[in-house]
Design brief:
Shape of chain B: globular
Number of domains of chain A: 1
Radius of gyration of chain B: 21 Å
Order of helices and strands of chain A: HHHHHHHHHHHHHHHH
Largest interface: A-B, 50 and 58 residues
Largest sheet of chain A: none
Mean pLDDT of chain B: 88
Number of strands of chain B: 2
CATH architecture of chain A: Orthogonal Bundle
Helix content of chain A: over 70%
Oligomer: heterodimer
Number of helices of chain A: 16
Chain lengths: 305, 338
């Protein structure tokens, strides 16, 4: 019984953490370029609605996922002219982007409310999924879950081990120095926004296609904001984003498991857990994370007056 | 030369605005809606009639408070994204005060008790982020943002639980508040909150620009290190100002339940906290401009409700238009620091 409980909890936690993981991984790239997109929530909504709408129209989940990734990238690029081109306030611009995503997804998603798709189903890996106890937790998940670890490693490699990543990080630390060193700082920031949007779009699509199998207005329920917090929690490290997303997804799944078993705990209190845990961990890690914040981001947080 | 530059800047503004409206029209056309009908219905339902205009004012009232809740801390260099949560906690505290004092409470006690409780609730919700910030432990942007989601659940917890009206079988809501707590209306649904909101704007302007404390706030906001070296109380001011912002947002929530709803229900706020944040940034945190930008946002938000009724569009559709217009304003302000 207890073993069942933990098995269900862990499997559910991994599934629930996946949308937030992709969004936070994308936001890591954006923030490494010295930008902050507070509107990830909007990008996820665009990904969730487009992924669902295209999958249900074409009947192909693959096409739906590609469309979600593509439009997520395009959508994030809308921030470019504002914050890169005009130097507009990033926090306000991000929030405006969130409103745009809310509006667009509600408007175009209306026709799909109440419909369902098979979406992205679990893909039991041969042999591995039959490993006792661990098999069903780790190896009876969907494709996007399997791709989380490779994606984190890919982004870690991209940012940390390629010259593109070096230039991008230089832009995030000190734009003037990067510019003087010959980087095309504007182009790099646009590229970061696009990649961030692609990942957030995939995250949103995972939510509607693999978890909910349906589209409802505002389906993300704040996961985009959680993703922004996770980036800080992860101290801007792609690999730690994986861990942070698991903690958040784990608390989310714990609540579902407890409720399914009729535990006598208020669902509202359990609902608060992920947010409170995130806050507590952020406070706990305060020193570690502050030192790693890209210098260019400090400007954003300190220039509100 | 200057006149010429002004004229071309104006032309650019007009062009950008027209572009935003045109883009929204194209979006409507793509799904077979007539944009002229939509704009017509937007205008008719807001500025086109006395009733519409009064609904805009009703929408404007909470926005004035939630925008100020952002503007005051912003003057100090703090980013308060927590208006939505502070508003909810304010409403919860005000509701608790009303329910525990009972329906027979007279107005001279009920009105100030409700307002004070609401402000206390909002301030309390801002206290933890303020403390964490003043200790240098956690940036207030993230903490206030995350606490919004917690606040919604706190309200749900009580409205579905201890404060639930046992008489309302299927609807989770509290009992109706006694008449002594309800904010009086001027006309229709336009209530005393509009006077309070304008008063708060005026007081904020006086505080910021005419008092010593306001001077200190702006000094710290301008250069915290220098201000600290001159002996200005950084931590105390941080906590006081962020809590004052929370109190204002709490008052917005109080007004919504005491003047409009008459009881506390879950999800009574139409993103007032987030809209207030945008208004304040668009207005450069200046009280008078908050009134102008607040009115613009209130018109669009009110129009959204009518789109749902008249045109069968989701009310969030209007967020598209709002975001496009915000993009225009943000792009125009650009590096001027708004």
């Amino acid at each position: 019984m207890a073993s069942d409980f933990f098995q269900g909890w862990l499997a559910g936690g991994i599934l629930a953490s996946t949308p937030i993981f992709y969004a936070a991984l994308g936001e890591t790239v954006v923030e490494k370029a010295g930008l902050i997109n507070l509107g990830v929530e909007g990008t996820m909504l665009v990904g969730a609605s487009v992924g669902f709408a295209v999958s249900s129209t074409t009947g192909s989940v693959a096409v739906g996922l590609c469309a979600a990734a593509l439009l997520g990238g395009v959508f994030n690029l809308l921030l470019g002219p504002l914050v890169v081109g005009r130097g507009a306030n990033q926090l306000a611009s991000g929030l405006a982007l969130m409103f745009l995503g809310q509006g667009l997804s509600a408007y175009y998603g209306k026709a799909f409310v109440g419909t369902t798709v098979d979406g992205l189903g679990p893909l039991a890996l041969p042999v591995l999924s039959r490993v006792p106890w661990l098999g069903p937790i780790l190896f009876r998940q969907d494709l996007l879950v399997y791709l989380t670890v490779p994606s984190a490693i890919f982004v870690w490699y991209l940012l940390g081990r390629t010259s593109w990543g070096l230039h991008l990080r230089a832009v995030g630390e000190d734009r003037m120095v990067a510019y003087a060193a010959g980087s095309n700082t504007g182009l790099l920031r646009y590229q970061a926004l696009a990649l961030g949007g692609v990942l957030a779009g995939i995250g949103g699509a995972h939510l509607s296609l693999a978890i909910a199998h349906t589209w409802t207005e505002g389906i993300t329920a704040g996961r985009g904001f959680i993703a922004v917090a996770l980036v800080i929690f992860a101290a801007w490290s792609p690999l730690r984003v994986l861990l942070g997303a698991l903690i958040f997804g784990g608390t989310l799944a714990l609540q579902i498991q407890l409720q399914a078993r009729g535990a006598e705990v208020s669902p509202f209190l359990l609902d608060m857990l992920p947010y409170l845990v995130t806050l507590a961990v952020l406070v706990q890690l305060r020193k570690a994370s502050r030192g790693r914040m890209p210098e260019g981001l400090k400007e954003v947080f300190e220039s509100s007056a | 030369m200057l006149a010429l530059r002004n004229r071309s800047a104006l032309a650019l503004d007009a062009g950008l605005l027209a572009g935003a409206l045109l883009l929204f029209s194209l979006l409507l056309l793509t799904s077979g809606k007539n944009p002229l009908d939509t704009y017509g219905s937007l205008l008719r339902s807001t500025l086109g009639s006395a009733y519409g205009l009064s609904e805009v004012v009703v929408k404007l009232i909470p926005l004035l408070f939630t925008a100020l809740a952002v503007a005051l801390p912003a003057r100090l260099g703090l980013v308060n994204v927590g208006g939505e949560g502070q508003l909810h906690l304010g409403a919860l505290f005000a509701a608790s005060a009303a329910l525990s004092l009972g329906p027979g409470t007279p107005g001279w006690l009920g009105l100030p008790a409700g307002a004070l409780a609401g402000m206390l609730g909002g301030a309390a919700w801002a206290f933890a982020p303020a403390l964490l910030r003043s200790l240098g432990w956690l940036n207030e942007t993230i903490s206030t943002l995350l606490l919004n989601y917690v606040a919604l659940r706190v309200v749900d917890f009580f409205v579905y639980g201890a404060l639930r009206d046992p008489g309302s079988a299927n609807v989770p809501q509290t009992k109706a508040f006694g008449p002594g707590f309800l904010w009086p209306a001027f006309t229709g649904r336009v209530h005393v909150g509009i006077a309070l909101g304008l008063l708060a704007l005026a007081l904020a302007a006086v505080l910021l620009f005419l008092t010593r404390w306001g001077y200190e706030i702006r000094a710290i906001g301008g250069n915290p290190v220098a201000a600290h070296r001159h002996g200005l109380p950084l931590a105390a001011t941080t906590i006081a100002v962020l809590c004052a912002g929370g109190a204002l947002a709490g008052l917005a929530g109080t007004g919504e339940i005491m003047a409009i709803q008459g009881r506390l229900r879950p999800h009574f706020s139409a993103d007032f906290g987030y809209l207030g944040f945008l208004i304040s940034w668009l207005a450069g945190h200046r009280p008078l401009r908050i009134l102008v930008m607040g009115f613009l946002v209130a018109v669009i938000a009110t129009g959204g409700d009518s789109l749902q009724l008249d045109q069968g569009l989701p009310s969030a559709t209007v967020n598209i238009l709002m975001a496009l217009l915000l993009f225009v304003v943000l792009a125009r302000e650009g590096k001027r620091g708004v």
